[in-house]
Write a structure and sequence with these properties.
This protein is of the alpha+beta class. It is 21% helix and 39% strand. The protein binds carboxymethyldethia coenzyme *A (CMX) and cobalt (II) ion. This is Methylmalonyl-CoA epimerase.
Length: 146
């Protein structure tokens, strides 16, 4: 079951400048940053709020590490902006299989490693009314016992 908006992914040309915009304009601070070579991104997670399922919601600012990455290609075509939306679930394996069974293309055979050791997969934007959609199970147990 999808239980929250885990994050909104925003593509940018200069991660440091974009982080500074979000800090100076809204007061959002970097909660975590990393380079994910497999995804071809340098990223910063800005934590917006906790949620009642024990997870949290973030903005994920993404700068490509190479031009032929998903974000690099998208930026070259569209410029900066919202790149994807990510829904949180306690069971990315089960939920992505159920969605695949409905005829939506799931991009990975098995979930891959995402930010903060989460497990992630993506649904093809052409099967989701133009929205690149990510499913995320965070590394920390995200289901509170209530
Ligand atoms: N949102 C909506 N539509 C998108 C899109 C996006 N982010 N990215 C591509 N598309 C559309 C394109 O506009 C294009 O449409 P048209 O044919 O109508 O022009 C079509 O999808 C194909 O796009 P493309 O530029 O040829 O790109 P590819 O097919 O090579 O790749 C995709 C598209 C979705 C398979 C690829 O971006 C992908 O694998 N994404 C998942 C991984 C990812 O995004 N990683 C970065 C984030 C990591 C993280 O969140 O941790
Ligand atoms: Co993401």
């Amino acid at each position: 079951m999808l239980t929250r908006i885990d994050h909104i992914g925003i593509a940018c040309f200069d991660l440091d400048k974009t982080v500074e915009f979000y800090r100076a304009t809204y007061g959002f601070e970097v909660f975590h940053s990393e380079i994910n070579e497999e995804q071809g991104v340098r990223e910063a997670m800005l934590r917006i709020n906790g949620t009642d399922d024990g997870g949290a919601s973030y903005l994920q600012l993404l700068e490509p590490t190479r031009e032929d990455s998903a974000v690099g290609k998208w930026l070259a075509k569209n410029g900066e902006g919202v790149h994807h939306i990510a829904f949180g679930t306690a069971d990315v394996d089960g939920d992505s299989e159920a969605i695949r069974d409905k005829g939506v293309r799931v991009l990975y055979d098995a979930p891959r490693r995402g930010s903060m050791d989460s497990r992630i997969t993506f649904l093809h934007p052409k099967d989701c009314h133009g929205v690149l959609t990510e499913l995320v199970t965070s590394a920390a147990p995200d289901v509170a016992d209530h």
